[in-house]
Amino acid sequence: MMKDNICNVLHGLKPTLLMLMVQIAFAGVNILYKLAVNDGMNLRIVVAYRFIFSTAFIAPVAFIIERKKRTKITWKILFQSFLCGLFGGSLAQNFYLEALSLTSPTFASAMANLIPAITFIMAVSFGLEKLNLRTKAGKAKIIGTMTGISGAMVLTFVKGIELNIGSFNLNLLHHQKSPTQATISTKNTILGSLCALASSSSYALWLIIHAKMSEQYPTHYSSTALMSFWASLVSIVFALCFEREFSQWKLGWNIRLLTVAYAGIVVSGAMICVISWCVHMRGPLFVSVFSPLMLICVALASCTMLNEKLHLGSVIGAVLIVCGLYAVVWGKSKEMKKKNQLAPSQSTHELDTIVVEDKSNHRNSNGHNNNLHVINDNEDSQKDEHVQNQEKEGGGVEEISRNA
User: Which family does it belong to (predicted)?
Assistant: First the structure.
C-alpha cells in the first residue's frame, strides 16, 4: 500500500521534475555558449551547427511518431514554417548569442524573460489581443509588461554595489581577465540589451506565427523539424556570408563539438519533446512558470564557475523582470479560465431558455391563441400514432433504434 502511494506521488511529480531538468539543461547551454565564444568559435557558426544537429535529431523522431497522422503540407504551411525558422530559429538565436557575448549569460537569460511581455505588446498591436483595462486580468498584463520593461532598464543602466556569493575556485575560462575586460563596458551593455530585445522580439513573433501555423498543421514534431530545417539553411547562408574559412567550421573533440551537439540534440531536440509532453499533461501555463529557474541556475553557475561579477542593480532588474513575467502569466491564466467557464454557462443558459419557452407553450396549448404550438402538437400526435402502428406491425421502436 505504501509502495503504491509512493509511486503515485512520484508519478504526480513527474512533470515538475522534468521541467526542473529542462531548465537546468537550458542553463547548461548558456554556460557552454560562453565557453565556445571564449574559445574563439564564431557565433554564427554555433547557431548553424545547432540547427543542423537539431534537424538531424528531430526529423527521424517526427517521421516515426507522426507518420500515420501527419497533415498534408501545403505551400502556405511551408511558407509559415520558413518564417518560424527565420524568426524563432536563426534570428532569435543569432541575436541572443550576440547579446551573451557582449554581456554575460546571466544578463542574456534575464532579458529572455521579457518574451511574454513583448508577445503581449505584439499581439495587441496585431489585434490578436485586447487590453481589457476594466478587468483584473487586463490590468495585470499591462502592469506586468511595464514592470518587465522597467526591470530591463534597471538591468541595463544600474550596476550598484558588487555582490560576492562565493566561488568554487573553478574558472572554466582558463585565463584571468584584466579588470577592464572583466567589467562589462556601458557600450557593450547597451548593445547587448538591444540584441537581447531583438532576440525576444523575434521569438515573440515566432510564437504568433507558430500559433497560426498549428491551426492548419497540428503535428508538433513535424512542425519542429520543418522549423529546424529552414533555420539551419538560413543560418548556414548567414554564417557563410561572414565566415568562409574552413578552420572555423571544423569541429574537433573539444568544447566546440560539445556545445553545438548539446545545443542541437539535447536542448533543441530532446528537451523540446519533454516540453511538449509537459504542455500536453499540465498546459502551457505550467511550463512558463519554470522559466525564471533558468536565470537562477545561470547566475549561480556564472558567478561560481565563470568568474562573473554580480551587481545589486542586476539582481533588482532580474527580480523586476521575473515579477513582470508572473504578472503577465497570471493575467493570461485568468482570461483562459474565464473563457473556459463562459462556454458551458452560455450553453446552460440556452437550455434554460428552451425549457422555459416549452413550459410557456405548454400552458398556452389549452387556449386558442398559440395556433403554431397546437399544429406542432397535432404533428407530434400523428407521429406517435405512426410509431404505434409500426409497433403493431411488429417492427418495434427499440429494434429500429438499435439498427440506426
Answer: Belongs to the drug/metabolite transporter (DMT) superfamily. Plant drug/metabolite exporter (P-DME) (TC 2.A.7.4) family.
Spatial distance between the Cα atoms of 125 and 107, rounded to a whole number of angstroms = 27
pLDDT, tens digit, 9 for 90 and up, residues 123-170: 888 877 777 778 888 888 889 889 988 888 888 888 888 877 665 555
Report the run of H or E that residue 162 belongs to, with start and end. Answer: strand 162-163
Residue pair 397/387 in contact (Cβ under 8 Å)? The answer is: yes
Closest C-alpha among 239, 199, 32 to residue 99: 199
User: How many Å apart are CA 337 and CA 332, to the nearest integer?
Assistant: 9
Gap between the terminal Cα atoms of the chain:
47
Residue with cell 568568474: 307
CA distance 329 to 310: 27
CA distance 119 to 200: 9
Which helix (DSSP H) or strand (DSSP E) does residue 338 occupy? helix 312-364
Beta strands in 235-392 (DSSP E): 310-311
pLDDT, tens digit, 9 for 90 and up, residues 330-341 = 888 888 787 777
Contact 36, 174 (CB under 8 A): no
Contact 259, 41 (CB under 8 A): yes
What is the full DSSP assignment across 358-369? HHHHHHHTTSSS
User: Which of residues 116 and 28 earns the better pLDDT score?
Assistant: 28
Contact indicator for 87, 209 with CB cutoff of 8 Å = yes
Report the distance separating Cα 268 and Cα 48, nearest Å: 13
Are 74 and 188 spatial neighbours (Cβ–Cβ below 8 Å)? no
- What is the rounded CA–CA span in Å between residue 188 and residue 186? 5
Q: Which residues pair with 310 in a beta bridge?
A: 163
Residues whose CB falls within 8 Å of the CB of residue 98, separated by 6 or more in sequence, listed in order: 43, 192, 195
Residues 6 or more apart in contact with residue 393 via CB below 8 angstroms: none
Angle between helices 43-65 and 92-102 (to 10 degrees): 140
DSSP E strands, 23-154: none
Q: The C-alpha cell of 191 is what?
A: 548593445
The CA-based dihedral angle spanning residues 219, 221, 227, 228, taken in that order and rounded to the nearest 10 degrees: -170
The radius of gyration computed from the CA coordinates of the chain, to the nearest angstrom, equals 29
pTM (global) more than 0.85: no
- 270 Cβ neighbours under 8 A, 6+ residues apart: 57
Report DSSP state, residue 163.
E
